[in-house]
Design goal:
Elements: E1 2-6, H1 12-19, E2 37-43, E3 46-56, E4 59-67, H2 76-90, E5 95-101, H3 105-109, E6 114-122, E7 125-133
Parallel strand pairs: 4-5
Antiparallel strand pairs: 1-2, 2-3, 3-4, 5-7, 6-7
């Protein structure tokens, strides 16, 4: 397993397939992607997981963390979250946060992210803002 920087366009197929398969591909293409840092997990040269990070002031927001279904449950997403947290510490950032699907809240809690109880809905999914202070 290798984590490396990728282009925003390399994230779109996995975002679409894993997170929003019922939406058009354009739904997962964010205007702000050009401003982000994008990372992928590769296994035997195959891109199997992705995440996009956006730094603003002293905070890092990560978005669209997704792992291909056949690779889920193998710790790949966990390694990606650990990578993001380490990156934020190296950049001396003060906070890492995300809009987590409410159904995935316990996954993020394992890494010290706390539910702020600020919730919202998007395309039929409920999200909650989770954060960790560094």
């Amino acid at each position: 397993m290798k984590i490396k920087a990728i282009k925003a366009s390399q994230t779109w197929q996995i975002r679409h397939e894993v997170m929003w398969p019922d939406q058009p591909l354009e739904f997962v293409q964010l205007e702000e992607d050009v401003l982000g840092l994008h990372f992928g997990v590769f296994i035997a040269e195959k891109l199997v997981a992705i995440v996009s990070c956006f730094v603003n002031n002293n905070e890092l927001q990560f978005r669209k963390l997704a792992t291909l279904e056949e690779y889920q449950g193998k710790g790949i997403g966990s390694e990606l979250v650990k990578y993001i947290l380490q990156l934020a510490k190296e950049k001396n950032l003060k906070k890492v946060w995300c809009n987590a699907r409410s159904s995935k809240k316990t996954f993020y809690e394992k890494f010290g992210l706390i539910d702020t109880h600020q919730t919202f809905r998007k395309a039929g999914q409920e999200f909650t803002i989770m954060e960790v202070l560094l």
